[in-house]
Design a protein that fits this description.
alpha+beta
Length: 197
């Protein structure tokens, strides 16, 4: 069991690792965009259940541009924000989404992961772990800010999953920094409930 002092030191160590800048060779080729910023007293507010999910257009690890509006009326979307490629909890979470990918497909949902890592980093992360879904490069954390994803201790990017229905409405929000795999079970349970299963 870690003491609070040791836990704080562990978080600070992780924060230092997460703040290592990643080169993004694709940043000059295409522009990313986020729309519909919600601001209260100069601060971005968190997207909540019942809100219309803010649209975005970002590059994936395969170099394609992915926009939320592309799925409107067609599929539900499981949008999960995670801190960084190839870190322990993030890798477990990404692989748990991979292992349940067919379940998500059967439930009519598109799985999309988002972090501030570069397109190249996402490409390598997906190849290394055989991830069958899209990973988006949120350069500068603009989409993270737009959705109001909180950070841990103000320095570690948060881990939050949003389940968005076909109409673009947020139906479920799950926030847990350390329980990466629970994001998957929460999302599956919500999608089943939306379908009455």
């Amino acid at each position: 069991m870690l003491s609070s002092k040791n836990l704080t030191m562990a978080f600070l160590t992780v924060a230092v690792l997460l703040n290592v800048p990643a080169a993004n060779a694709d940043s000059d080729t295409k522009k990313d965009s986020v729309e519909g910023k919600k601001v209260t007293q100069g601060k971005t507010t968190s997207v909540k259940i019942g809100d219309k999910a803010p649209d975005f257009s970002l590059l994936s690890g395969s170099g394609e541009t992915v926009a939320l509006k592309d799925f409107n009326g067609k599929k539900s979307v499981v949008l999960f924000f995670y801190p960084k490629d190839e870190t322990s909890v993030c890798t477990k979470e990404a692989c748990a989404f991979r292992d349940q990918f067919e379940v998500f497909k059967d439930l009519g949902a598109e799985v999309i992961g988002v972090s501030s890592d570069s397109v190249q980093s996402h490409k390598e992360f997906a190849a290394s772990h055989k991830l069958p879904y899209k990973l988006l490069s949120d350069d500068g954390g603009k989409l993270r800010k737009l959705y109001g994803v909180p950070s841990t201790m103000g320095i570690i990017p948060g881990r939050v999953t949003y389940v968005i229905d076909k109409a673009g409405t947020v139906k479920h929000v799950f926030n847990s920094q350390m329980e990466g795999e629970k994001h998957v079970t929460e999302a599956v349970a919500m999608l089943k409930s939306l379908q009455g299963k």
